[in-house]
Amino acid sequence: MGEIALLGLEFYGRHGVRPEEGRLGARFVVDLWLKVPFEGRGDRLEETVDYAAVYALVEEVVRHRRFYLIEALADHLAEALLQAFPRLEGVRVRVHKPHAPIPGVFRDVYAETEKTRS
């Protein structure tokens, strides 16, 4: 089993529980770790996961859906990736909300989930 990482995918989305988060939106960053079988694989795109298609799926969800919690967004992304890409054996999704409306100084807030194919 191998792992492919797509890190730092940035999108503008409208996620959050506060009404202004839905109206104004903010920047979200997504990190993905995709578990795929490497051994015995050839050197063709059809034998792995198409990174561009993964990016497009994540972009569609983050930009065009609305979730109140980044935990729900991360969980939805993990499920959608497993459903869309049969070669994936598992996925770990981390959704960062670097500008979360928290009073005080902080560097980052993120939610992470990991799912495997059943």
Automatic annotation (TrEMBL):
Keyword annotations: Folate biosynthesis, Lyase
Q: Which Gene3D superfamilies match?
A: 3.30.1130.10
Gene behind this chain?
folB
Protein name from the UniProt record: 7,8-dihydroneopterin aldolase
According to its UniProt entry, the protein's GO biological process terms are: folic acid biosynthetic process; tetrahydrofolate biosynthetic process
Per the record, the pathway is: Cofactor biosynthesis; tetrahydrofolate biosynthesis; 2-amino-4-hydroxy-6-hydroxymethyl-7,8-dihydropteridine diphosphate from 7,8-dihydroneopterin triphosphate: step 3/4
Of the GO CC terms on this record, one is:
cytoplasm
> Mind listing the GO molecular function terms for this protein?
dihydroneopterin aldolase activity
- InterPro entries for this protein: Dihydroneopterin_aldolase, FolB_dom, GTP-CH-I_C/QueF
Please name the source species. Answer: Thermus scotoductus
**Lineage of source species:** Bacteria, Thermotogati, Deinococcota, Deinococci, Thermales
